[in-house]
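Extended Data, record DNA-binding transcriptional LysR family regulator
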Amino acid sequence: MELRQLEYFVTVAEQRSFTRAAEQVHVAQPGVSAQIRKLERELGQELLDRSGREVRLTAVGEAVLPYARAALAAVAGVRAAVDELAGLVRGHLSVGTVTSHDVDLPGLLAAFHDAHPEVEITLTEANTDQLLEGLWAGHLDAAIVSLGSETPPGLDVLVVADQPVVAAVSHDHELAVHPVISLDTLRGRPLISLPRGTGLRTRLDEACAAAGFVPKIAFEASDPQILAQLAARGLGAAILPRAFAAARPRELRVITIDRPALRGRLAFAWRAGGPTSPAGRALVSRARETLGVAEGE
C-alpha cells in the first residue's frame, strides 16, 4: 500500500470523478485508475462503484475513507513538524481575493515569496461567499474578503479597511443635489451594484430587507470601475465604497447614505485557530506585520 494510492483514492472519492481527480493530482487518468485498482487488489475489495455517471464509494470504500484521510494527514503532519523544527517553510499556499480592493496583496505575497522561495503560492479570485466557503472547507489558507459588521463564524480576521458605502450618481442626476439621503430614498430607484455573493451587495441587500424593500438593481458588474462608468452616464445610482467614488469627482457626485449608515470592511481572513501548516502560519504572521486598518470617514 502506497501513499499515492491513498491520495488518489481520497481525491476520486471527493471529486466523484476519475477525470477531475486526475486533473487535481496532475496525473493522467489511466495512472490514477491503475493505482486505485492496485490498491483494491491488495485489499481484496472494491472501494469505488464505477457503474453510474458519478463514481461512488462502496460500503468498503466508505469504511476505508476516514483511515485514508487520517494517514495522509499524519504524513503531512510529520513533514510540517520536521520543516518547522528545521526552521524551514515549504509546501503550498492557496490564497483567495475579492475582485477589486486597495489592499497591497501582491506586495504581501511578493515579500513572502522572497522570504520563503520554496513555498508554492496559488491565487484565486472570486466573490466573498465563494471565498468564505473555501476557507471553511480548507481549500484556501487565507483570503481577502468583504465583510459587514459581524465576523463569520469559524474564522479569524485582520481588518485592513473600514469605510462607508455610498451612492454615487452623475452630476445631473436628480439625487445629486442631496449630500445625504436615507436608505429609503433608494426604494424603487434604479441602482448599479456588484453581483450577489459579493460583500458590498450583501450589505445592501441586508439593509434594504431590514427597511422592508428589495433594491431595484438595474445593472450589475463585478468591476467597480464599470459601476462608476455606468453611474457617470446617468444610468442610476452606483453603490460603492466612499474612497473609490470620491476619487472620481469629475464624473461622480458622492452621496452619503444614512438612516441606516452602510459600512463595508475588507479583511484578511483565515480559519479560526490559525492555519495548520508552517507556511500558512508564516503568511498570517507577515500579514499581521504589514497590513493595517485603514478607516474611512
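Summary. Residues 3-85 form a domain with the Arc Repressor Mutant, subunit A fold (CATH 1.10.10.10).
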